[in-house]
């Protein structure tokens, strides 16, 4: 059981939270098409494109000019491993590496074209190259665009984890200190490229803004993969005909500035996992359903699994845990109902709204079509029974689902735990 100190802290936390929620409910409509993705009172961690002590580099990208939607990419250093044998080099020859260092003279018969710096030299392995010796910053480059007969190796491709942070749709951020710490651990321990989504928050952007942002990121990933494929198919090495050079320039005209080099070199969109925490699990589940509906239209992105951690599910008919633990620690039921009032449009508010209750009929494709799902619930979470019930429905539908209830305590103060938030 939690200590007396935790219980007292929980009481004050809930009083302060309810006060903030009530204030926002009483404020005039602050609707904004552009939206916001973070709150001023939240501590944030700056992006760092250099590989730090934990071996993870990060960068922020604003992917939609019409809204505040942004992402933070977490790239683990195992992504820089090369497939195949390492090239031979003279003992006195310095090699350019992903952490900086001296720059060697590259072979004269190969070229690489970066998405930032234009044509340049290619390393001996024909894969992603590195950046400045002064800062150790890793920019990443497109996989080598050379004749197919001379392709000797490529960067290591990693699965992509698309992560949606928690916060009841009204708080939280993909750049917060806690979320940055969590995503770094996922990237390092799972050996995956993590994309944390900075979706628009309520009440500035109510439903379905956050859900649309989640789907928009998946479509953006698909666009990235297609641009890279087009670029590789039309790219050319130095010394080919004028016609080939012109075709490459056409690709550069509409594609080079939009290609994200880290994903182009290291991301595998055909192995995409959706991971959501709290309300982020609701977004992940919605995006998974939409991708299933889209079918082949979503290719080359393929959602192979989803992870729902402490989903933010609710309903008009209370479950046993919703009755027994309604006044639980930190986020009790009354506070969460206020959050739903801020998120859902006033004329659509219902605890049985499809965004809130996964068990209402007519939510989307048959459950048997859903990807394999890992459900994580917390011991003192009053929403746990509805999450388990949803997992049971997936089992009954004979979906390829792994129903694993991991009883972890929701202690947001223990930063050393991989599930802390």
Automatic annotation (TrEMBL):
InterPro entries: AB_hydrolase_3 (IPR013094), AB_hydrolase_fold (IPR029058), Carboxylest/Gibb_receptor (IPR050466), Lipase_GDXG_HIS_AS (IPR002168). Residues 80-97 have a biased composition (Basic and acidic residues). Gene3D superfamilies: alpha/beta hydrolase (3.40.50.1820). GO terms for molecular function: hydrolase activity. Keywords: Hydrolase. Residues 161-399 form the Alpha/beta hydrolase fold-3 domain. Residues 32-58, 80-130 are annotated as: Disordered. Belongs to the 'GDXG' lipolytic enzyme family. This is Alpha/beta hydrolase fold-3 domain-containing protein. The lineage of its organism: Eukaryota, Viridiplantae, Streptophyta, Embryophyta, Tracheophyta.
């Amino acid at each position: 059981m939690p200590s007396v100190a935790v219980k007292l802290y929980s009481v004050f936390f809930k009083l302060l939270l309810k006060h903030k929620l009530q204030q926002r409910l009483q404020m005039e409509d602050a609707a904004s098409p552009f939206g916001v993705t973070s709150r001023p009172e939240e501590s944030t961690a700056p992006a760092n494109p250099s590989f730090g002590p934990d071996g993870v580099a990060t960068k922020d990208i604003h992917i939609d000019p019409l809204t505040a939607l942004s992402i933070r990419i977490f790239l683990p250093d195992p992504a820089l491993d090369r497939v195949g044998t390492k090239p031979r080099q003279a003992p006195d020859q310095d090699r350019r590496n992903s952490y900086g260092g001296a720059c060697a003279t590259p072979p004269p018969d190969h070229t690489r074209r970066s998405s930032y710096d234009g044509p340049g030299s290619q390393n001996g392995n024909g894969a992603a190259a590195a950046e400045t010796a002064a800062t150790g910053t890793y920019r990443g480059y497109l996989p080598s665009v050379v004749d197919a007969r001379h392709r000797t190796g490529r960067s290591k491709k990693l699965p992509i984890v698309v992560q949606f942070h928690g916060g009841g749709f009204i708080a939280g951020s993909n750049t917060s200190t806690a979320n940055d710490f969590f995503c770094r651990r996922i990237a390092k321990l799972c050996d995956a490229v993590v994309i944390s989504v900075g979706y628009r928050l309520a009440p500035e952007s109510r439903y379905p803004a956050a859900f649309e942002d989640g789907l928009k990121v998946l479509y953006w990933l698909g666009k990235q993969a297609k641009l890279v494929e087009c670029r590789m198919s039309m790219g050319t090495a130095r010394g080919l005909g004028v016609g080939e050079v012109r075709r490459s320039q056409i690709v550069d005209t509409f594609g080079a500035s939009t290609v994200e080099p880290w994903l182009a070199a290291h991301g595998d969109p055909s192995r995409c996992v959706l991971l959501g925490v709290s309300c982020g699990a609701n977004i992940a589940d919605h995006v998974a359903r939409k991708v299933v509906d889209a079918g082949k239209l979503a290719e080359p992105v393929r959602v192979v699994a989803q992870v729902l951690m402490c989903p933010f599910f609710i309903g008009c008919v209370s479950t046993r845990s919703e009755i027994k633990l309604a006044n639980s620690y930190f986020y009790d039921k009354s506070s969460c109902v206020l959050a739903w009032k801020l998120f859902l449009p006033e004329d659509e508010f219902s605890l049985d709204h499809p965004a809130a209750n996964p068990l209402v009929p007519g939510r989307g494709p048959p459950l048997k079509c859903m990807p394999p799902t890992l459900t994580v619930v917390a011991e003192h979470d009053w929403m746990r029974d509805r999450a388990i019930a949803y997992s049971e429905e997936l089992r009954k539908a004979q979906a390829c689902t792994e129903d694993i209830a991991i009883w972890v305590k929701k202690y947001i103060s223990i930063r050393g735990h991989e599930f802390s938030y």
